[in-house]
Specification:
heterodimer, A: 255 residues, alpha+beta, 6-stranded antiparallel sheet, 5-stranded antiparallel sheet, B: 199 residues, 3 helices
């Protein structure tokens, strides 16, 4: 599989520090966006620990079954949760810290995403933008229960409250999302500093424009800042250029 | 996947406060169902703690992002977290002890997955499952009945993208193995006949 990727994080307009962390391990197709929370720069610590530990733990080996890959994604997020949680109990100024995690692994012709919190993954295919992940947030639950509309949820006073978090409890259970990839697919990973400022139509407009990846990211961040930049803005874009042909096993004969 | 009682009209359960002190009227378990909530002796507060050392509006609990904080509302007898006086918004850890005047409460936040996973560690909810197997091997029953995928560590929810799963014909993906086997058999036969002739 061939792909291009680009990432950037921006402090936004309102916040003084950046608590987001992104990680791109492009040599093995692994990407993480983490949005940390907690006072005294604890949020930065939580998001940095989460993205580093998840990437260290998730080490797929050729020939692993999907069950094993999914179990490894779950266990890598859970072990990062354990490490962060231990620090919250040992260090006074890290009390209450936690982070979201959205981790994307590119597998042969598929993607695997592990999700905790309200950072998001989107897929743009054929000009249609689809949100792959589902937020673990208070307002998302209210929307699911039919008490809020999606539009009301965006401006709700509790829009920033998340109901599942890496590091704030002894254990966590991530959601997993699996799907196929095609050539020309574009995957967006973003913290809520982007998706809270720009709605899906805004995102689609920028992602379908005739720009390269860096220009798209610059425009996404500039527009989010223009709308208020209320939170740190982090974006990763992954463009799938070519998928390994289904007869990918053929080279094994030559070698 | 979320138990119905946690989605009552009051909202989902976000945290539980356990009353550790004696002499407090009311239930020892207090449910926190709102991301912002006042605690005090006044029945109009979200969480009523009926004790003489507790002010009418004593403290405020607030959830921002995933971080719970407590703020003292200029109470007469003060608020402490794990022995530390509350000045401004102090973050709470799971299991933190909040002291309002003389009343000690234990703070226990809930992560929503705790409600979604059955206590006996049963099957996770699987949404839209289609056959999923190692792509290199191919799978024969993609359109068959939904196979239940049971990862070793249970995720709360597994969603397979609604884009269909690409089926790789088993014959094609197994072609290398067949050719290698065929070549090996042929080589053995040729060697056998060569040796036989030499004799």
């Amino acid at each position: 599989m061939r792909f291009m990727c680009a990432a950037r994080t921006d402090v936004g307009v309102v916040r003084s520090g950046n608590e987001d962390t992104y990680l791109m391990a492009s040599e093995r197709g692994f990407f993480v966006v983490a949005d940390g929370m907690g006072g005294h720069a604890a949020g930065e610590v939580a998001s940095e620990m989460a993205s580093r530990l998840v990437a260290e733990e998730f080490r797929p080996v050729r020939g692993m079954s999907d069950d094993e890959l999914m179990a490894q994604m779950v266990s890598s997020i859970r072990s990062a949760n354990g490490a962060i949680f231990r620090r919250t109990t040992l260090e006074e100024d890290k009390r209450g810290m936690g982070t979201t995690v959205t981790a994307l692994a590119l597998l042969p012709r598929r993607y695997l995403i592990g999700q905790v919190g309200d950072s998001r993954a989107y897929l743009l295919r054929g000009g249609v933008l689809t949100q792959i992940t589902k937020d673990h947030s208070y307002v998302q639950e209210q929307v699911d229960a039919g008490r809020l509309t999606a539009v009301e949820a965006r401006v709700h006073p509790y829009a920033n409250v998340i109901t599942r978090c890496v590091g704030s409890n002894g254990d966590v259970v991530p959601d997993l999302f699996v799907g196929t990839l095609e050539a020309d697919d574009l995957i967006l990973l973003a913290s809520d500093g982007l998706t809270g400022m720009l709605d899906d139509d805004d995102l689609r407009e920028i992602l379908t424009a005739d720009l390269d990846l860096e220009q798209m990211i610059d425009k996404l961040i500039a527009d989010a800042n223009h709308r208020g930049g209320l939170d740190n803005i982090t974006t990763i874009l992954v463009k799938i250029e070519a998928i390994a042909p289904p007869t990918g096993e053929v080279p094994a004969i030559r070698g | 996947m979320i138990a119905p009682e946690t989605h009552s009209a009051l909202g989902a359960l976000l945290a539980v406060l356990l009353v550790r002190s004696r002499g407090v009227v009311g239930s020892p378990h207090m449910a926190v169902r709102s991301p912002t909530l006042r605690i005090g002796r006044d029945p109009a507060t979200g969480l009523r703690v009926d004790h003489p050392s507790v002010s009418a509006e004593h403290a405020e609990l607030r959830l921002r992002g995933a971080v719970w904080t407590v703020t003292d509302l200029d109470s007469v007898n003060g608020t402490w977290v794990d022995g530390e006086p509350v000045l401004g918004a102090l973050p709470l850890a799971p299991g933190s002890e909040i002291r309002l005047g003389e009343v000690v409460l234990a703070f226990n936040p809930r992560d929503r997955w705790e409600d979604s996973v059955s206590p006996d560690g049963g099957e996770p909810s699987l949404i839209g499952v289609t056959g999923l197997d190692d792509a290199g091997v191919g799978t024969g029953d993609v359109d068959g009945p939904a196979s239940v995928v049971t990862p070793r560590a249970h995720p709360a929810r597994v969603v397979f993208g609604g884009y269909g799963y690409e089926e790789i014909p088993a014959a094609r993906s197994r072609a290398p193995a067949i050719w290698i086997t065929a070549a090996a058999v042929a080589a053995v036969l040729i060697l056998y006949f060569l040796l036989f002739r030499v004799r």
